[in-house]
Design a protein that fits this description.
Blueprint (H helix, E strand, L loop, with lengths): L1 H49 L16 E4 L6 E5 L4 E2 L9 H11 L11 H14 L9 H10 L6 H17 L2 H11 L6 E2 L1 H9 L8 H8 L15 H17 L5 H9 L15 H15 L1 H6 L3 E4 L3 H22 L3 E8 L4 E6 L15 H4 L9 H10 L7 E4 L37 E4 H6 L3 H11 L1 H11 L23 H12 L3 E3 L4 E5 L5 E4 L4 E3 L3 H11 L2 H8 L14 E6 L5 E8 L2 E8 L15 H11 L59 H15 L2
Helix pairs in contact: 2-8, 2-9, 4-5, 4-6, 8-9, 9-10, 13-22, 15-17, 15-18, 15-20
Amino acid sequence: MLLKIRSVKLIIFINMRKKRLWLKIVGVLTLLFFALTLFALAKAAKIAKELPDPGQFVANRQISQSSKIYDRSGEILLYEIYDEEKRTIIPFEEIPEQVKQAAISLEDKNFYTHPAFDWRAILRAMIVNFLKGRVVQGGSTITQQLAKNAFLASEKTFERKFKELILSYWIEKKYSKDEILSLYLNTISYGANTYGIEAASQMYFGKPAKNLNLAEAALLSGLPKAPTYYSPYGSHLNDLISRKDYALGQMKEMGFIDEEEFGRAQKYEFNFIPQNLGSIKAPHFVMMTKEYLVNKYGEDFLKKGGLKIITTLDWSMQQEAEAVIKEGAERNEKLYNGKNAALVAQDPKTGQILALVGSQNYFDVKNEGNFNVAASGLRQPGSSFKPFAYLTAFKKGYLPETVVFDAPTEFVPNNPNCPTIVDYSTPSLADCYHPENYDKKFRGPINLRNALSQSINVPAVKILYLAGVEDTVKTAQDLGITTLGDPWRYGLSLVLGGGEVKLTDMVNAYSVFAQEGVKREQKLILKIEDAYSNEIESFSDTATQVIEPQYARILNDVLSDEEARRPFLSNSFELTTFPDKQVALKTGTSDDKRDAWTIGYTPSLVVGVWAGNNRQEPMQAGSVLAALPIWSAFMTRILPNYSTEVFNKPAVDQKIEKAMINGEYLLPDGQVHDILYFVDKNDPLGLSPLNPGDDPQFKNWESATQEWLTLNRH
């Protein structure tokens, strides 16, 4: 009994100790809470005293200094960026209802019900950003945006956000919702130094805001989020159109428009008036540079910071590039109905872009001349993609002397709908694949040097299979092709240009060839100085060996072999040779004649040319020559300025004693087989397969080879 009493007393004692400890903790936390609250209130009071009076919507701006973009010499002014505002204030009653509705639908659905900020939107944005691991969604109301744009800097800090919330609360206290919306629509930036809906309507459509239709109102509502990126005169018009469609969807969801109005506005074709940029040189290059600067430093800093931007552009080379593009596009329009062309020239030793023309006429808005095909256009490369497959094959042990059979071949195995013996006179079924060569001729046994140099399709498809689609895509990505996704998306047509690429990426990848496997990041900027001549950015060389030099040398040796390419180019051969200069090159044409390419290079200069139509209309027969004369004209004018260089020869390896790999295809007993008879695709330098028929392609390849031999034995 005594023990039990003592146990109870002990428990009571312990509980009392715990209670006292808990009371101390609560006390400390309470004191800490009040201390933090007092600190926050004091901080808020201090910040509030520093804030401007929202009754006066005049930003307290510093004296602005324009930023200037120069060529690489620092003497040729390409473009001046300044903060001269275009603004016309119009009464709230003159702003169309659909403009107001579009802004509310896109930016702030609860505008007329929240007090100044929307905690639900802020919380939702925080959750989404956390899940995505980056800022993809904002929670700012129209009132907050007004406060930020009118009074505050653009830095992303807690204090700036706190100021924004205080100012937003004050604005809501002083003005009605209609007045706030009016101030917002009359002061927000719509890009190109244009502020307010009236100035934006005049800027982009040449008419007062009161005459805007639904589609135009929805499109303009999408600009303030990122005016430079979404500019109708830039390279992201499709993204702006998508944002317009999203705004329309939100308007329909909120009941502002019905299904019929939504459908009409979605299909509406815009007619933007020509952009007045004042004095500008190399406009596509300049706009690329400006976009880079805005993304890195912000729009305000660029407009007001007095920056001196020295770019990589060679102005004399740029002038030649613009001239040959204009001449070539005019010629192509007459001959092939190909109205546009683009060119990129790059120094492979530095990654610096020396010249860039995104279309024949930047100011031809009617024909989408402002669209930068060079940097933003996704186009099928045709045969200009073949070097990536051949390079991958060289890495696996195949040689320029390796022989494959160029014969009519069906590449879909074990399909009863696809005859083993190809007959091109009958219509091809959708699930069959038997490509033809450009001249509809088949050459039988041919080595890889001649197959690549003469751009023969059937051997290229065989090489892609032997090299592997996945490994070839990996090679292209390693060299700088950014637009190819997962390899499973592509079949064997990839080697004939089945994927889509950008001209800038292709030039950068070919630069890796020129530099024997060394990849460099493409650069637009040499140096940036602030208004006080302090250097804030400078060129830095970033070089990575992504391909062993030997394999790049093999490819360079093949692509620079003039005699090997002569049969392919026939009467155009002289366009590919230059006195005292060794030049490698590859052409390409998409199957539907929508795209023509020529990319050629020396160890010190890589030049790529694309020709076609912006809206991808097919060109006419003969368009295989749409890009080559442009490229040749440019090289003819530029190469004399470069010293004579030659590509390093690949090392002479010991002959590989393996049929077909070393160029021998005739067995001692006189038998002839296709390469899969001798080579295991997964181990090309290993033992010959015991059962060649295990390879799914063997039956079709072997049948095609034997059929060709039967028809061509003498």
